[in-house]
Amino acid sequence: MYQYDAVDQEFVADRSREFREQVARRLSGELSEDQFKTLRLMNGLYLQLHAYMLRIAIPYGSLNARQMRRLAHIGRVYDRGYGHFTTRQNLQFHWIKLRDAPDILDQLAEVDMHAIQTSGNCIRNVTSDPYAGATAEELDDPRVWSEAIRQWSSLHPEFSFLPRKFKIAITASAKDRTAAKVHDIGLMIRRGRDGQLGFEVIVGGGLGRTPYVGPTITEFLPANRLFSYLEAILRVYNRHGRRDNIYKARIKILVAALGAEEFARQVAEEWAKIGPEGDLPDTELARIRGAFATTVFEALPARSEAFESAKAAHPALARFARNNLRPHKKPGYTIIEVSLKTIGDTPGDATSDQMDVIADLAERYGQDDIRVTHEQNLVLPHVRLDDVPEVFAQLQAAGLASANVNLISDIIACPGLDYCALANARAIPVAQQIAQTFADPDRAEAIGELKIKISGCINACGHHHVGHIGILGVDKKGEEFYQLTLGGSGAEDAAVGKMLGPALPYDKVASAIDTLVEVYLRERQEGERFLDTYRRTGVEPFKEAVYADAH
Amino acid sequence: MPTLIRRLDDDQFILADDPFTAVADDEGLPPGDVIISFTRFQAEGDRLLTEGRAVGVRLEPAEEVEALAYDLPRIAVVALAFPKYRDGRGYTAARLLRERFAYAGEVRAVGEVLREQAGFMVRCGFDAFAPADGASPQDWAHAVHRHRHVYQRAADLRTPAFVEREGG
């Protein structure tokens, strides 16, 4: 993981000090809540239904044991003993007191963390591949570029008052684990024919009220020209993005209005004027690369006898291995996904005690490295196969061993009406009901990969548009209803889901999902996921079954 | 005479008299130095300049600095309007004035100008401020000097972190 130098540390400390003064001005009454709002929003502090919510940046979802322990500590001392990992790889505390916020930021600064730009109309936390540095699929380590962007975007003088928030994702693998195509900018690391490193640049994807899969505006941008190109995109957007209507202010609306080709032309024109002056020197990129702690791997056989015999003896471990382990680039190692989707619990929540367990495991068995996925799970990216049985046992003891990654109960849900002032409907209890419906692990495994995503309102924080099954909470005359969409994907085969039919009442959602799954199991052909079957058959068989049931 | 906050070359901030009168489009022109809209400048700029006055131009966020490019050598002040503090187009305008057009005159921030924007504004090349929140030059200096490090090259002459590190 990236090691802060004195510059990075002082930067974060200065920011924390500034916020302490601002909070003091608010508490003394010098600032009204309205005046203070703009300041707290620049530090990730929202006023929600019951309390303040603090969103802490976990840059590109990467943290170490010390940082995880500090989050656990903050949760214990200043919140209710738990935190919520988000779809942008951040962590939210939902029960914060304003007077504690400056102390929390200081505590974060001590471990090289912050809440800068986790809200507001600025460049937000960059998201990246949670398997970075561990998967054999990647062309380069996307964290290096993510960190460079983190620094470049921090208190950017020109781009801190954009028309609307701005989210960048970077992936270096063909298998996209970042939802790059539904970000304001998606960067996909590519290698040119001559072996040179570069980026495919996708601009104007997004979810919310008007979902778009973003178009590619440049197929291959040489890697060392990234920052001048980003500056050109942001400048065109800052000048021409709409500011008259909050719902039409994201860059996707500008790109759609101009057309991808015209937008690309404007960017190219601005880029030519900026020139290489706007780029980060190669020496700094090399320094950042070098500031990532090197991971030293042992030479191990690809097969671990200890692991194989433990699996044979313990079916639960075997199930966990089938669903939660991913291939590592080094023989004898594996990537472990830790599901935060324990059936019956809130998706993405972890208690402080659980955070401590993860920190201990990372330290003892995982090269002090932890990741957060945009699907709200955690990852131990470098674990020896030999150690998996022990890690599994400790996860099990902490209630963190759900073997359901990518399965039907691995649901993304926004906080919904239980917490959020914007929501129309609850999201968490719907997720819990669906998870209960599919609590039988054999059945869940037989169903295979199925991504359900739930949003409590049209702002789509639960990414329902890109769920294989998407669920959107709506308000109909004061009652919670849910609209189902099918066929969405946030991965490399990105697509926006299509609406199934009229919205269903709260108590019919879980049974409707059950019906959809039955249709899939009936219709599926060899090797098809739910998404594949849907794409082959179209909506009709699904629609017929759900609405026949509903009547 | 109304006052404004000025940034001096040594990065100090002082309260200074404002010799310019801001004139709305429907107002008559007083004698002396004036700041007028871009539309009015196009109609009356030549005449005012021949009268020997110093003339400043106020640009609204939607008006592009490129339109002013050829007139810049004879304009004493470009006043960039912030109808709302949230409207960030003025930051781009200021950077382009300084970096692309090498404009050496005064770049002034007018409208909803708050101390929280001070650091960003100075980095983009603003050197005169008419704060709407009653901020003093001390408040302004405090906000601007808050951060010991910056990560980007911009229109001010601050050394970005990546250069600072090379020296370290």
Summarize the structure in words.
The complex is a heterodimer of chains A (551) and B (168). By secondary structure, chain A is an alpha+beta fold. Chain A contains 18 helices and 21 strands. Chain A folds into four domains: 6-110, Sulfite Reductase Hemoprotein, domain 2, CATH 3.90.480; 134-290, Sulfite Reductase Hemoprotein, domain 1 (2-Layer Sandwich); 305-397, Sulfite Reductase Hemoprotein, domain 2, CATH 3.90.480; 413-550, 2-Layer Sandwich (Sulfite Reductase Hemoprotein, domain 1), CATH 3.30.413.10. Chain A has helices spanning 6-27, 33-41, 65-78, 101-110, 142-153, 226-240, 251-258, 260-274, 282-290, 305-313, 315-324, 352-365, 388-397, 428-437, 441-447, 509-523, 530-537, 540-550, and strands spanning 45-47, 52-56, 62-63, 82-85, 91-96, 127-128, 168-171, 185-191, 197-203, 216-222, 325-327, 333-338, 349-351, 370-372, 378-384, 412-413, 452-455, 469-476, 479-486, 498-499, 504-505. In chain A, a hairpin with a 4-residue loop joins β1 (45-47) and β2 (52-56). In chain A, α3 runs antiparallel to α12 (352-365) and α16 packs across α17 (530-537). Chain A is globular and about 55 Å long. The model of chain A has no long low-confidence stretch (mean pLDDT 95). Chain B has 168 residues and is of the alpha/beta class. Chain B has a single domain (3-167), classed as TIM Barrel, CATH 3.20.20. Chain B has helices at 38-50, 89-100, 118-124, 137-144, 161-167, and strands spanning 3-7, 13-17, 21-22, 34-37, 55-59, 77-82, 106-111, 128-129. In chain B, β1 (3-7) and β2 form a beta hairpin. In chain B, α2 packs parallel to α3 (118-124) and α3 (118-124) crosses α4. Chain B is globular and about 50 Å long. The relative contact order of chain B is 0.14. Classes of the chains: A alpha+beta (551), B alpha/beta (168). The interface between A and B is medium-sized, with 37 and 32 residues.
